[in-house]
Structure formats: structure tokens, C-alpha cells
Design goal:
Elements: H1 3-17, E1 20-24, H2 30-45, E2 49-55, E3 72-76, H3 83-94, H4 103-125, H5 128-137, E4 141-145, H6 150-157, E5 162-167, H7 173-178, H8 201-233, H9 240-245, E6 250-252, E7 268-270, H10 287-293, E8 298-303, H11 315-327, E9 331-336, E10 351-354, H12 359-364, E11 370-373, H13 377-386, E12 390-392, H14 399-407, E13 412-414, H15 423-435, H16 437-451, H17 457-471, H18 486-489, H19 492-507, H20 510-536, H21 543-575, H22 582-607, H23 609-619, H24 625-645
Parallel strand pairs: 1-2, 1-4, 2-3, 4-5, 5-6, 6-7, 8-9, 8-11, 9-10, 11-12, 12-13
């Protein structure tokens, strides 16, 4: 068989076994688009038929699809209503370097984000021709990021029954709650928290407030999107929580060996690291960068990502960085600076400016010594996999959390953006990670763990997506806990019952309890006495009924006798010098009651002829007749004497 025939056979095999995937990936943030693009390419590489549906939300990134292998791409034009929002968004991002979070600023961001996502969502599903086209494709699986729920609504319209949710971040608390996953602010930092997992009371409070804010921000966007669907397709359209919970799996961009440990459901699959290429060919450096790395023994890469660009950095921050570079002439600095033909570092021979960098390839090169970065999840993940020590300077969003997360492993130092106001802190941090070999050792150990983890992120993703494509929705992974109310979930109803019982039995004053017990006992004794008096005056001709009343009288008298004896025993214990435990006192005090009730056995045996005959019959006992006869005669004599005074019982 020729090579051509082998290739043709392989293609036919892929065609017959492959599934059809629709990946919904809005173009609005490179980290999100890149993550979804890599997932699409992973499926394409595995032989599946993948189509990308990409609504354009940021016209400046229209060509940044994140895909290299997937060719079926459907782009939806930007909605004209969001153009003003994009202008505001760009201005807002440029101020991220100095912006302090305020209530008014957060509310403004919430309003803009809601309108931004809702308008573009409406632009997608109101295209009836597009919706019909998607429905006719008969996709097996739909994949969308949970940053919005529009994709899941589109899947519902296109009659795609099996859906998968993704997150380009480590996790998002509202989505965790929607699928029934525990949210634990006491030791798990929220998605945008600046705290680690070891928090004091104030840090836990701040973390909880941050989680509450996240719950308020994103569900507002989700609700707005779903309401748009309901206006067009009816009120029966699923709520956002149900759309997310119906997803067979949730793929997150976290890694259990890198992220903080937290409780997760079986349907949550962490695939952090899938965006990091391990192929040495993909990490090959261009010749110009190879020459730069050969200049000095120590080389530091400085990059603050693609959102909060270094060119928008305050002037005093830039001056601080340049002073640090100047104070370390033995080190080469590669600085990502987006302004073309900038002259700010012309006076520094050890500094190389560039508007773009092959970041992962540089990090993979052993000649690169350290990394100064903003703490974006993509950069942190690449850094962790390549094993380089770092100084992390988070600017906004989830970056503070990512910085703390990596620093916890001992291979990085985290600062704040305000530490750039003076050069000393950055200079000292660089000096520490370059001179203290423990940072490099810890970073390399983490990288080795990530490389040798039992199942690679790529394999996890492929296995679970193909499993979902075969079996569809997986209700057996859907916990019933998400159906419970807040009161039921946290056992507040049980706590109420326990509190009431505790108050009744332990919270009342001692005198009230004693008085209630005394009154109750007095009423019981009065009932006993009244019963005996009344029964003696009743005429009863039926023999069996007379036996019943006699039994009741004897039982009442024996219980009263035992109770009185118990009281005297208790008094004796009060004046006793011997030490008894509460259990021992209860054991001894209960003995008179038990003995008194037990005597009824003997009394009934000698008083009731029917009881005695039945007892002898079933237990095969033989009691001397003269004993029972004597006792019976005595009992009859007593009864005749009573009947002469009152009515016969």
C-alpha cells in the first residue's frame, strides 16, 4: 500500500469517527480569544470538524482569532450600538495603571459591560439566516466560554443538545454556584482577590466582599442576555443558571499543581497549560533574539501584557524602570514597549525595546534569567511551565490573584503597581531573585511537575469532549445541591430547630425549670388520685374489664411509690459525702421506679386467676396451689370487704 493510500485511509477514518463542534468565541479580549482558538485547534488536530462562530466586539482585534488550524470561521459584524462603549473602554484601560477601584467606577463598568455583551448577543441571534444555517449543520457539540451566556442561548436555538462550558480564567464564583460547586471565601481567593489562601479576618472579609461584587457584576450581564432571548423566543427560555448547569463539563484554565486547592465537582475539568506549546520547534527563536540573549550572562524579560500597555504607564513609573535598568549594566533587559520608534531607552546600551515579543520562546530559552510581568494568567501559566523566577507587578482584574498564586510556590516575588513609584523595591526584588538560587530551584521544580503531571491538559480536554459528544448531557454529574435554597443548603433550618430546643431545655432560668417540673409532677399525682377514687365508685360486671382497672390502679400506685423513693434517694445523694457522677446517680435513682413497676408482675400473678392460668400455660410454670389459693382467698376477702362499703369492682 502506498503512502497516498495510507493518508487517504487515515482521512476517511477521521471523517467517520470525528464529531462536529461549534465553538462560540467573541472577539473582545486576546487572552479569551486565544484560549478558545487553541481549544478549537486541538479538536481540529484530533480530526474533528470544527466551526468557529466569532462575533466581533472589538474592531481593533478583528484579525486575532487565536486559531491556526481551524479554517471554518463565521464572523458576525460588530453591533453599531457598542462603538461608543469601545471608545470608553479604551480610555478606561489606559488609566488602569493608576486607577483605584471606586463604587461609581465599578457601577459604570457594570453598566457598560452589560450593554456591550447584550447588544452583540442580540446582533447574533436576530440574524435568522445565520441561526437557520447553524441548525441545518446538525452540530454534535457546542462549546462556549462562561464569560457570557449568549453562546449557550445560540446553541439552544440551533438545537445543539450537548454543550460544554469553558473559562479562560481559573474560576468564576457565579458560574461555580450555578453548577452547584461550593464557594469557600474563607480560604479560596475569589477570581479578582489580592489575597492568598492564608487570610486574617480582614483579608477574609475583603475576599468575601469581592466575591459578592463578582456575583453582582456578571449575573447582571447574564440576566440581560437571557432577557433578550426571552423577548424573542418566549418566557419559557431557560434561565442563565440552567444554561450553564446543562453543560456536560466546565473546562477551566487552571491547573491543580499551580492553582490554590479548592473543592470542585467532577464536571469541572482543569486544563490550565493547554495554551503552552511544548514543541521545541514552536519555541525556536528568530536570529535577532538569539543575538540579544548572547550579549550578557544575565537577561531579564520585562512585559506587562497586551491590555494595560507599557506605553500608557505614568511617566514616574517609566522613569523608575529606566533607573533600575541603568543601575544594573551587567544585565540585559528586553522591554516590551508598544510605541513604535520610541527613544526613551536610547541612552541605555543594555536595554532592547520591542513592540512585540516571542514571549514563550524567550521563556523557554535557558539563557533568559528572569521575568518581570503583570501577572496575566497566560503569562503566569507560560512562566510556570518554563521554570523561570519572576517579579510580578499586577495591574488590574485577576492579576493580583495570579501573582499571589505563583509566588506561593517560592519562585516569584509579587509587588503592587504602586511600588513602581520608586525604583528601590523593584531593584531589590530583582537582586533577590537573581542572587538567591532557591527562587530558580523552586521555579524549575514547579515546571517539572507541570511537565510530568499524570494526564496532560490536552489529553484531558480531548477525552472529555469526545466523551460528552458520545453520551450527550450528563445529569449524573449534576448535584442536587444547586436546587436547594440558601436556608436548606447551609442547614439554617436545622440550626433554627437546634436553637429553639437549646433555649427550651438549657436557656431557661433554673427556677423556671424547677417550678415547671414541680407543677407537672403535682398534676400527675392529682390525676392518679382522682383516677383511683373514681374507679372505686364504678360498677363493673365484666371480669376482664375489672382486671384492666385493677392493673391500672396497681401500676399507678407502683409508679408513685418509685417516684417518691427516687426523691428520697436524690436527697440522700445531696447530703452524701461520696462522689457520684450524674450517670451513676441516674442509674441508682431509677432503680426504685423499675422495681416498683416490676412488682406488678407478682401482684398480677396472685390477684388475677386468668393471668395466672395463661402465664402457667405458656411458660410451663407450676406454682404450688396452696400459695395461689391462699393469696386468691385473701384477695377475694379484701374485695368482698370493699364491695360492702361501695359498689363492687
Amino acid at each position: 500500500m502506498t503512502g497516498y493510500h495510507i493518508l487517504l485511509l487515515a482521512l476517511l477514518t477521521y471523517s467517520s469517527d470525528g464529531y462536529k463542534f461549534l465553538v462560540y468565541s467573541p472577539i473582545f479580549g486576546y487572552s479569551h480569544t486565544n484560549f478558545m482558538g487553541i481549544l478549537a485547534d486541538t479538536l481540529t488536530e484530533a480530526g474533528h470538524n470544527v466551526t468557529m462562530l466569532m462575533p466581533i466586539m472589538d474592531v481593533e482585534q478583528v484579525n486575532k482569532t487565536g486559531v491556526k488550524l481551524t479554517t471554518n470561521i463565521i464572523k458576525v459584524p460588530v453591533d453599531e450600538r457598542i462603538a461608543p462603549i469601545m471608545k470608553h473602554q479604551a480610555a478606561q484601560i489606559s488609566r488602569m495603571w493608576t486607577l483605584q477601584p471606586t463604587i461609581s467606577g465599578l457601577l459604570e463598568m457594570k453598566k457598560n459591560m452589560t450593554m456591550w455583551f447584550t447588544c452583540q448577543c442580540e446582533r447574533v441571534f436576530q440574524d435568522e439566516a445565520l441561526m437557520k444555517q447553524l441548525e441545518e449543520e446538525h452540530f454534535d457539540v457546542g462549546i462556549a466560554e462562561g464569560f457570557g451566556v449568549c453562546g449557550f442561548g445560540v446553541f439552544k436555538i440551533a438545537k445543539i443538545k450537548t454543550t460544554l462550558a469553558t473559562l479562560a480564567s481559573v474560576h468564576m464564583d457565579p458560574i461555580s454556584e450555578a453548577i452547584g460547586e461550593p464557594v469557600t471565601p474563607s480560604y479560596v481567593p475569589g477570581g479578582m482577590s489580592a489575597a492568598g489562601d492564608q487570610m486574617n479576618i480582614f483579608a477574609r472579609l475583603k475576599n468575601a466582599i469581592g466575591i459578592i461584587f463578582t456575583r453582582a457584576l456578571f449575573p447582571t450581564v447574564f440576566v440581560s442576555e437571557v432577557n433578550s432571548f426571552k423577548e424573542k423566543f418566549g418566557s419559557e427560555f431557560s434561565d442563565w443558571q440552567q444554561l450553564l448547569a446543562d453543560a456536560s463539563y466546565l473546562f477551566t484554565n487552571s491547573n491543580p499543581y499551580l492553582d490554590y486547592p479548592r473543592p470542585m465537582l467532577h464536571k469541572t475539568v482543569p486544563i490550565g497549560g493547554i495554551t503552552v506549546p511544548n514543541d521545541s520547534k514552536k519555541n525556536k527563536l528568530p536570529a535577532e533574539w538569539d543575538a540579544v540573549l548572547n550579549e550578557r550572562n544575565t537577561t531579564v524579560l520585562v512585559s506587562f501584557g497586551s491590555v494595560a500597555k507599557a506605553m500608557y504607564m505614568p511617566e514616574d513609573y517609566k522613569e523608575s524602570l529606566l533607573k533600575v535598568f541603568e543601575s544594573m549594566p551587567e544585565t540585559t533587559f528586553i522591554f516590551k514597549y508598544e510605541e513604535k520608534d520610541s527613544k526613551i531607552a536610547d541612552h541605555l546600551p543594555n536595554v532592547h525595546l520591542s513592540t512585540w515579543l516571542p514571549q514563550n520562546a524567550l521563556l523557554a530559552d535557558p539563557r533568559l534569567t528572569a521575568f518581570v510581568t503583570h501577572g496575566g494568567l497566560g503569562s503566569v501559566t507560560e512562566l510556570a511551565h518554563q521554570g523561570k523566577p519572576a517579579v510580578l507587578i499586577p495591574i488590574f482584574g485577576d492579576q493580583p490573584r495570579n501573582a499571589k498564586m505563583l509566588a506561593k510556590h517560592g519562585g516569584a516575588i509579587d509587588l503592587t503597581k504602586y511600588d513602581l513609584e520608586t525604583p528601590e523595591k523593584l531593584r531589590e526584588s530583582l537582586r533577590i531573585i537573581l542572587s538567591d538560587t532557591s527562587y530558580s530551584k523552586n521555579a524549575k521544580r514547579l515546571a517539572e511537575m507541570l511537565r510530568k503531571q499524570p494526564i496532560s491538559p490536552k489529553e484531558l480536554f480531548l477525552r472529555h469532549t469526545e466523551f460528552a459528544a458520545k453520551f450527550g448531557r450528563l445529569p449524573n454529574l449534576d448535584p442536587y445541591g444547586r436546587q436547594l435554597s440558601f436556608i436548606q443548603y447551609y442547614l439554617i433550618d436545622i440550626a433554627k430547630v437546634v436553637c429553639v430546643v437549646s433555649v427550651v431545655f438549657y436557656g431557661l432560668p433554673r427556677t423556671i425549670i424547677i417550678n415547671v417540673a414541680a407543677i407537672a409532677n403535682s398534676l400527675i399525682l392529682a390525676c392518679y388520685a382522682l383516677f383511683i377514687v373514681k374507679v372505686r365508685k364504678v360498677s363493673i360486671s365484666d371480669k376482664n374489664l375489672r382486671h384492666i382497672y385493677r392493673s391500672l390502679i396497681l401500676t399507678s400506685l407502683s409508679v408513685v411509690l418509685g417516684w417518691v423513693a427516687t426523691i428520697f434517694i436524690g436527697i440522700a445523694f445531696d447530703y452524701s459525702t461520696m462522689n457520684f457522677t450524674g450517670t451513676e446517680i441516674a442509674l441508682i435513682s431509677g432503680l426504685p421506679v423499675n422495681l416498683s413497676i416490676a412488682t406488678n408482675f407478682f401482684v398480677f400473678y396472685f390477684v388475677s386467676e386468668q393471668y395466672r392460668n395463661d402465664f402457667n400455660k405458656y411458660l410451663y410454670l407450676r406454682v404450688p396451689k396452696h400459695m395461689t389459693k391462699t393469696k386468691s382467698i385473701r384477695a377475694q376477702t379484701i374485695m368482698r370487704q370493699r364491695s360492702t362499703r361501695t359498689t363492687t369492682i
